[in-house]
Amino acid sequence: MKNTILIVEDDTDIAKLINVHLSELALQCDICSHGEEALNLALTKDYQLILLDVMLPGIGGMDICRQIRQKKPLQSIIMLTSKTSEIDRILGLELGADDYMTKPFSIRELQARVRTQLRRFQALQAKSMLHSDHAVSIPVNEKVNEIDDNSTATSIGQLQVDHRFHQVTYKQNSINLTATEFELIDFFCKHPDQVFSRAQLLDSVWGYHHTGYEHTVNSHINRLRSKLEEDCTEPQIIQTVWGVGYKLNSAGVMPL
Question: What CATH fold (topology level) applies to the domain 3-126?
């Protein structure tokens, strides 16, 4: 069965162009141009990915993104914005979009971004059938460069990432994450206490590096902090190393 994508775009020519080139990837697309119709389709049908324009007649793309994320937290969303509208890109990411693309964009880049999001969605839905049920634990005073990717779970103190069910728990509480947020915290947990630049995170987690897309990393870091940190103004888990990037502070998740 084909993967189904929802294209929400009020420019008919752009919508048709996207549809043609996604069809080359054996993807089936539904197209709509009005906000209310888009929201209804997004909430009543199951899509592997939604390409969502910001400027729409009726309900705007930002509000649609917010409502989708509230009711379908795992839905993959890529926002489409104008090249000059930086504030739209930032707001879209803060409201829960997994990624954004600025118009005009290259077809090759569009296809690559779509493949990345579909891979995440499929991994989240598949819940790999592993029989081993052990977790890999990291002592508080031991720094590990990389953890075996075949392990079923990674535990650092009170933070656990379960790869089988794509679930994250912290202090025994389940943390509701999007597929992209899960991959970001999973990457950090596999490399505790190591510092990564935004460019390195874009390349390792999103699978691309394009100048101008650093807001994607910033917004996802902010969203993770809002779900994990007691005080986002003084983060203890995902810390900023000024002038360099971000790291997961293993001491910040250890039991008191």
Answer: Rossmann fold (3.40.50)
Q: Can you read off the two tokens belonging to residue 27? A: 């993807």
Statement: the pTM of the whole predicted model exceeds 0.90 = no
Per-residue model confidence as pLDDT tens digits over 217-256? 888 899 899 999 999 889 999 999 998 999 999 998 887 5
For residues 132 and 65, give the distance between their C-alpha atoms in angstroms, rounded to a whole number.
37
Give the start-to-end residue ranges of the domains of the chain.
3-126, 136-253
CATH topology (fold) of 136-253: Arc Repressor Mutant, subunit A (1.10.10)
Residues in the chain: 256
- Would you state the structure tokens that stand for residue 189, as one six-digit string? 């947990």
Q: Is the peptide bond before 104 cis (omega within 30 degrees of 0)?
A: yes
Closest CA to 166 of 150, 152, 155: 152
Each residue's pLDDT tens digit, 142-195: 333 334 445 578 888 899 998 877 789 999 898 888 878 888 999 999 999 999
The answer to whether the beta carbons of residues 52 and 61 sit under 8 Å apart is: yes
Q: Is 59 helix (H, G, I), strand (E, B) or coil?
A: coil
Which among 13, 19, 220, 42 has a CA at the least distance from the CA of 114? 19
- Let me know: does 31 contact 123? Beta carbons within 8 Å: no
State phi, psi for 23 to the nearest 5 degrees.
Answer: -65, -30
